[in-house]
Design goal:
The complex is a heterodimer. Chain A is of the alpha/beta class. Chain A is built from 11 helices and 10 strands. In chain A, the strands form 3 sheets. A 6-stranded mixed β-sheet of chain A has the order 5-4-3-6-7-10, with helices on both faces. Chain A has a two-stranded antiparallel ribbon with strand order 1-2. In chain A, strand 4 and strand 5 form a beta hairpin. In chain B, strand 24 and strand 25 form a beta hairpin. The chains are: A alpha/beta, B alpha/beta. Strand 8 of chain A pairs parallel with strand 2 of chain B, so a sheet runs across the interface.
Chain lengths: ~300, ~675
């Protein structure tokens, strides 16, 4: 592992070769930070903020024992990140997320992303939770920063499989019940839904004061499908079979897809949500960068 | 429409296969999963349906292919009505004479040409069939229309004349029965023959065709043919070391001919024949150093004449003198003397006769004798009776006559027959005549004279259940019967051969009866070892068990079972019967009447033709526009269409595959 360039570890096909999600998350995040250290533009890290006198209820793990040795007083070391918020990862596990033609399908890529986000957030002591949904909530883990939270989240991610159709209205209605306190909500989905439905889903969250990040995960073949001859395509969610011509896929389909993306971005912008489109053959660093920048902005 | 093999129609169920395959194929169309169809054009569904329509075309092609194959194998025949001419339809029966005389110079070639000409003249609703006539009448090709004349020509091409005799009367009688005419169809028999005079039946009236049948004679005999043939080979009665060969035929064929004698395949003498000498002639050949046993003699005329098939004559010569043991009470008794005289008078076969007392039976080596004749079965008792019974059981043969001594016994020795009781025993002392007889038995060849024999007394007996009674008195009492104890033969005659009980000995029949009975018992009948081509040959006198029959070419001709030892030889030469560890030969020659090539004179031909009904006197009135139905087979066209479909099907399927064979770029 050490012989490989650090950023190469963020490539999906490399991450896919790792045995566990924890290793994936650690490799992705540490590789990402190593890349950041070489760049003076990004000085944000686990930046020291202040010392705070230890009080009951504080986690004794965070006592700075060097200070105690010098002063015989117990202080807790606090960082800038500690001032921020809880992170809720909303992962779409609908059937369409199981689609993919490359080494990593969309759901697996989304799992990598969710694992990396959870790892990074828990490193900064952000309470992190996970909600998996398709037509309804499939898995829920409340936000927590306690020891073992990462393992629990990773275990939940590991056990997730692509399910049925997407129903944002129902899923986000249940999500809102679990996100009573303000925080950061990271939605990871391919967003094959009506943009109005997305509006109905995120608008209540935004109004409640949540910061929303939308990671739209797509496969390259969805962006630019290419077939030499007519092909019979089957919708993995509805089972509908349609024979389409190569000409149509080259022209009309792409136009419609671009229009759909534009409307998704518009919905996100309207609700001050951050939208990042991720393609499964791209490294994870862009997604993590988006997250850090957004978190930094949200935490201030 | 009719079907040759309607069971093949069950194969039409195979239509379900392509239908099922298409359903299955539709469900397993090659398709690719895609994340979402929300951006796909709805109009593409219509294009998908168009492809299904093309699949239906492929399905239709495949169903039609199975349908055509099933129908073709079922052999459909369409009924096609063929209009007859103003005289109605006619069935032409082309009968070819395949007797031996058709081998004569050019006759068969002309017969074929005439038959081909008749086939070629076939037209309209007329049909034709082909038959071959010699000792039997064979249908070579059933009636066909002119369109199928090729079948007639093919059957004609493989036909060759044989070596048997043709009787024109038998042919006329059999032809009408073998020719299945349709309603309203005339039957015309075209008889292609060399019109031998010797082929005429004994009764000229037998040549009269059945009603409604018209005969046309096609003469293919050469204008003039001279034939000479060997008519017989027999042992010289005065000199057993010599044979006499008879030659008969046309004197014109005598010139520059030689008579060749072969013994066991080796030429022993070649003798030129003198031209101009009267026929038949007889030549005597002396056979030196001819050892004991059976010898195959072939008398051949060389060079060949117009009919070479009868130039050779085959005969078997037995240089064996079967020994016969006569058991009598006294060597000087009437019965012993009569038997010795009768057996000694036979020129052929020549028996060596010994006479002995009953007490000597146990001392004699009975296996050396071909037969044992007992003048009175009542003489046998104790050890002699046991010895004779053992001899017969082991394959020997015996003739028992029942006399005064036997009349005193309740059970006849060796035979096991019981003395009759009641009226039959009382009638045994009354004069009686012969009544019922088994005429087919070789011992009883002259039934007429048997009824002239007067029996003053006889021994009334009840033969064993397995006995076969050959002769009975008018009152039903058995006079003679045959038994087969073990492997042997036993004849029992219920009256002695002296003159006290009957006058058989003074009838000419006596010598023949004794010789036939002894020869049959000994299995040495000369006539059994010879036969005629085309005539039933019975080998029961030669052997007792089954045998394989090999023809003169060495090919197996027949398999004879234990019960039936008859077959019909079809080739001249020596037939060999193999079985039971030994072989027997039978000499087979053509019927000598086939060698007489003299044709039927014109007067006889006219009389023959006058026997048939005059033209216009057809028994069945036929409408001018009547026709017959012809069955036209259509399987060929169905198979042709199926082959075309089989060629097109991959093209259509490949066209569809062009759409289905999508590959990601």
């Amino acid at each position: 592992m050490s012989a490989a360039p650090a950023t190469s570890l963020l490539r999906p096909e490399v991450l896919a070769s790792l045995s566990s999600l924890e290793l994936v998350a650690r490799s992705a995040v540490e590789g990402f930070f190593q890349g950041l250290h070489r760049s003076p533009r990004f000085g944000f890290s686990q930046e020291f903020a202040e010392y705070k006198a230890y009080a009951e209820g504080d986690d004794p793990r965070f006592i700075d024992w060097n200070v105690f040795a010098r002063t015989e007083r117990t202080y807790i070391k606090r960082y800038l990140g500690d001032t921020n918020t809880r992170l809720m990862i909303a992962l779409d596990v609908s059937a369409s997320m199981g689609y993919g033609n490359g080494a990593v399908n969309k759901l697996r890529y989304a799992k990598f992303l969710a694992a990396a986000l959870a790892y990074m957030a828990l490193q900064q002591h952000d309470p992190t939770g996970l909600i998996a949904f398709d037509s309804k909530i499939r898995s829920y883990r409340p936000p927590s920063s306690r020891t073992g939270s990462l393992s629990a989240i990773l275990h939940s991610l590991d056990s997730l499989e692509a399910g049925s159709q997407t129903n944002l209205d129902e899923s986000f209605r249940q999500l809102r019940e679990h996100c009573q306190r303000r925080g950061l909500v990271a939605v990871i989905s391919d967003l094959y839904c009506d943009p109005e439905a997305l509006t109905r889903a995120v608008q209540p969250l935004a109004w409640r004061g949540h910061d929303i990040m939308i990671f739209q995960v797509l496969d390259r073949s969805e962006l630019a499908p290419h077939w030499e001859e007519s092909v019979l395509l089957e919708d993995v969610e509805s089972g509908q079979q349609i024979e389409v011509s190569p000409d149509y896929l080259r022209t009309t389909y792409r136009q419609r897809f671009e229009a759909h993306l534009a409307r998704i971005r518009e919905v996100a912008a309207r609700h001050r949500a951050d939208h990042a489109m991720l393609v499964t053959d791209e490294p994870l660093d862009r997604a993590l960068r988006e997250y850090l920048m957004f978190r930094h902005g949200a935490g201030r | 429409m009719s079907w040759l093999a309607p069971w093949f129609l069950a194969g039409l169920a195979g239509i379900a296969l392509p239908i099922w395959l298409h359903r299955f194929a539709r469900k397993t169309d090659q398709k690719h999963q895609f994340a979402s169809s929300m951006f796909l054009e709805a109009s593409e569904i219509r294009r998908n349906r168009r492809r299904e329509i093309r699949y239906w075309l492929l399905l239709a092609a495949r169903v039609l292919l199975v349908l055509l194959l099933g129908l073709a194998f079922a052999g459909p025949q369409l009924r096609s009505r063929v209009l007859a001419g103003p005289q109605g339809a006619t069935l032409h029966a082309i009968v070819l004479d395949t007797s031996m005389s058709m081998h004569q110079d050019g006759a068969w070639q002309r017969a074929r040409e005439q038959a081909n000409a008749l086939i070629g003249a076939l037209k309209g609703a007329d049909r034709a069939m082909l038959l071959a006539a010699d000792y039997r009448l064979r249908v070579l090709q059933e009636p066909v229309f002119a369109g199928d004349a090729g079948q007639l020509r093919a059957a004609l091409q493989t036909l060759e004349p044989g070596y048997a005799r043709l009787d024109d009367g038998a042919m006329v009688a059999g032809t009408a029965a073998r020719c299945p005419t349709a309603p309203g169809e005339h039957l015309v028999v075209h008889f292609i023959t060399d019109l031998q005079q010797s082929a005429s039946p004994l009764r000229f009236a037998d040549l009269a065709p059945p009603p409604g049948v018209r005969f046309e004679l096609v003469d293919v005999a050469p204008p003039k043919a001279a034939n000479l043939h060997v008519s017989g080979v027999r042992e010289d009665a005065r000199d057993p070391g010599a044979v006499r060969i008879s030659v008969d035929g046309d004197a014109a064929a005598l010139a520059k001919r030689e008579l060749v004698l072969e013994v066991n395949g080796k030429q022993v003498e070649r003798r030129p024949l003198k031209a101009g000498q009267p026929l038949p002639l007889e030549e005597r050949f002396v056979l030196n150093d001819l050892g004991p046993g059976e010898h195959r003699l072939t008398a051949r005329l060389e060079p060949a004449d117009d009919l070479p098939e009868d130039d050779a004559y085959y005969a078997l010569l037995r240089h064996v003198e079967p020994k016969v043991l006569v058991i009598a009470a006294s060597n000087d008794g009437d019965d012993a003397q009569y038997l010795r005289a009768a057996l000694g008078a036979l020129p052929q076969p020549h028996f060596s006769v010994e006479t002995a007392q009953p007490g000597e039976l146990a001392k004699r080596q009975l296996g050396d004798f071909a037969a044992v004749i007992v003048s009175d079965a009542g003489l046998l008792s104790g050890t002699p009776a046991d010895a004779l019974a053992k001899y017969v059981q082991g394959g020997g043969a015996a003739l028992l006559t029942l006399g005064a001594r036997a009349a005193q016994l309740d059970t006849i020795p060796v035979s096991g027959a019981k003395r009759a009781r009641g009226d039959a025993r009382q009638q045994a002392d009354q004069p009686a005549r012969v009544g019922e007889m088994e005429l087919s038995h070789p011992v009883l060849r002259e039934p007429g004279t048997w009824r002239q024999v007067r029996f003053l007394k006889h021994v009334a007996t009840v033969p064993p259940a397995q006995a076969h009674v050959l002769m009975r008195f008018t009152n039903g009492t058995p006079l003679m019967w045959e038994q087969a104890p073990g492997q042997g033969r036993l004849l029992v005659f219920a009256s002695p051969l002296d003159r006290e009980w009957n006058d058989l000995a003074i009838h000419p029949l006596f010598v023949r009866f004794v010789s036939e009975a002894t020869a049959w018992l000994a299995g040495t009948r000369v006539t059994a070892a010879s036969g005629t081509v085309g005539a039933m040959l019975d080998a029961s006198n030669l052997r007792h068990g089954g045998a394989q029959v090999f023809d003169p070419r060495g090919q197996r001709a027949s398999m004879l079972g234990d019960g039936d030892l008859r077959w019909v030889p079809e080739l001249p030469g020596f037939y060999e019967l193999r079985g039971g560890g030994h072989s027997d030969f039978v000499a087979v020659n053509p019927d000598p009447r086939e060698s007489r090539l003299a044709p039927l004179d014109q007067q006889a031909r006219d009389r023959w033709l006058a026997l048939q009904p005059q033209p216009g006197a057809a028994p069945v009135a036929v409408a001018a526009d009547s026709g017959s139905e012809r069955l036209v087979p259509v399987w060929f066209w169905l198979l042709l269409a199926a082959a075309a479909l089989a060629f097109l099907e991959p093209l259509v399927a490949n066209y569809h595959l062009n759409i289905r064979r999508e590959q990601r770029a």
